[in-house]
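Chapter summary example.
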Amino acid sequence: MKVEVKQVELVDVGTDLLAVGLVEGGELPPEIAGAAGADSARSGFKKLSLLRPDGFPTVLVVGLGESEELDLETLRIAAAVAAKEAERLEAKSIAWAYPRGIDSVLAADALVTGTVLAAYRFDRFKSGERDDSPRLESLVLPGPAEFAKTVEWARITAEAQNRARDLQLTPANFATPTFLAERAEAITAASEALTVEVFGRAELEAKGMGGLIAVGQGSAEEPKLIVLRYSGGGSGPTLAYVGKGVTFDTGGISLKPGAGMQEMKMDMSGGAAVLEATAAIAELGLPLELIALVPTTENMPSGTAIKPGDIITQYNGKTVEVNNTDAEGRLILADALAYAVELGAERIVDIATLTGAVEIALGSTYAGLVSNDDPLAAEVIEAGEVSGELVWRLPLHPEYKELMKGTVADLSNLGKKRKAGTITAASFLEEFVGETAWAHLDIAGSAWDIGREYVGNEANGFGARLLVEFARHSAS
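The structure predicted for these 476 residues follows.
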């Protein structure tokens, strides 16, 4: 989508549709306040109203609710509603008049984000039924030239989230570990500040990455570890992002129920967020050093698959009893986390669709956050509040670690009791970061079916914008 800032009056925006946000008791811009139907629009501050003032494009009045509750999330939702109404009206271009009562620069960010995300469609695999209805092609924001940087930031990060949605929705017979590696190589080709290494089965075996090898050994698809390095300079600590990249998760020998298993093509949502956030960070030229790691594999049952009770050795030398092959994400993340530490990461954020327990605890509203470092956790929470991708911190405690101790190995990949499933999984991961500041995001409840107006109930690329915002805060 084309997004631009124009230094023009509302009457000269030159779009098919002009959206105006209106809070309860608020006033329409004076240029359109006298249009037929304006009084009705003012009284219906929670609805949509169409006005056709002389000399103007069609005006869509979007009710924003009570002024005291106006925030960035309200504007993201309003922008999404307006974008969908624009498509219904067959408008190809839309402009926004900034609502009063909120900083215009922040409003511009939210309006761009909501519009770009809401205009997303995934129809790559449709043939005769392809949706050929008119699409929204451009967004104009009237305002000073100083807004351009904010608007461009919002466009880049929203498009990164949409690309992550593309990866999530691409079926597993296309989106294999090799496919993700090729995407990483394409990202690298677009920036001189990026390099990439991809380790296949032989390299993983040579390095002793027992978790990734074990999970992938039941599949004909070769497991891989993707390592992107972004050299943007800056004087801050080296940051690492680690994203779970299970491109299809059957559960392995501990087979999942068949109902809903098609959603397990999205068990690589954390890896998608890391890849596309890294692409956006490079495009924005943020001044920091970043290592992005995506361990990727399928988890399949077969005659060569890992079995419950098998013992493996992870990259850092710790041994693990694999007591449930459907607790596979922590095994591949463990290798990647230990490798990130070896590569010199000073702060680590991992993101993964790790446990069903997090959806039971927090639903889809919040992702779960577990961290060994209070300042790092606070920064992740703040980044989520800015991006609208909310996270809620859960505790760590030595008693949770006890639940993950093995019987004949150092650790078990499944807790001894059905207690604190999200936290015990995170406690397992903590064993592989040592003293490095680390934060874990469990997005199993938030990566799809979140239900917000600008992303709906399908794949939503959760975490991509959060990771970019966190990197922006970390850059120096």
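To summarize the output: The radius of gyration is 24 Å.
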